[in-house]
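Q: Hi! First time doing this. I have a protein sequence and I read that you can turn it into a structure. Is that right? Here it is:
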Amino acid sequence: MSDEAILMKGVCKDFKVLNRHEGLKGSIKDLFSRDYKTVSAVKDVSLTVNKGEIVGYLGPNGAGKSTTIKMMTGVLEPTSGEILVNGLVPYKDRTKNCENIGVVFGQRSQLWWSLPLIESFKLLRDIYMVPQKEYDDMIALYRSLVDIEPVLHKPVRQMSLGQRTLSDILAAFLHNPGIVFLDEPTIGLDVSMKSKIRDLILGLNKEKHTTVILTTHDMGDVDALCKRIVIIDKGSKIYDNDIDHLKSYFGSYRTLRMRIGDTWEERLIDEKETDVMSVIAETQAKHKIKDIQLQEISTEEVIKKIYEGGS
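A: Yes, that's right. Below is the predicted 3D structure, encoded as structure tokens:
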């Protein structure tokens, strides 16, 4: 039996986009125009994700992340290349593919707005034809990982944003899918709820060996959940390895924090090119420094430098 949950080989996705004209006359002309241009959203991406991995799929807005995920879930058909998800071609076997994936995208809830959470769970149990024993075991697992009692009998419309997000993640795992796709699962949440959701995802991954594909701009999610990250930019894959390997490329970078008055100021310094003590002395000559911290470069700073062409 294959260990591969997702296999992509040379996958490309092109879109035909109308070259629009300005003004009222232009709008009328566009109705009959055949003046199209081709936009490449994904360019020759190859990727293998093994079962049980949590992979961070990262990139700036417009990089091609959502298009790739839509191809994995069967919503879009690739222009060229090969893609297999749990051994299935997702756009050809959409029903079977959907049976074995879970999705939390863009805070579009799959829960019933006016029903208590437990009733949504029961409906999903019936939709996915989950045996009662497996359903009961999953609810028991949920109770062991997170305190779900406060929300279990609460209508979704009465929940806070954090409670809804937590509930949607629970719903995505309920039928024990092989792969779960999470899009910005902690966006807009406070620190406490972010921590709960990260712990929940890690717990479910450990207990059920579920493969998780995570798209996020929150580097706290990446550091807490992902051992491996894939970075895509302008439709092309530019990095696929673990976080520590990525940081090794920027091993000489440090974040220098200096407290001047009541304000902390930060500078990213490449020690190969800049002497830290010289920077401190130069600053001290102009301002009174009350405190100094020298920190290793963060994952967020590394990703930012790659987006800016620092790789």
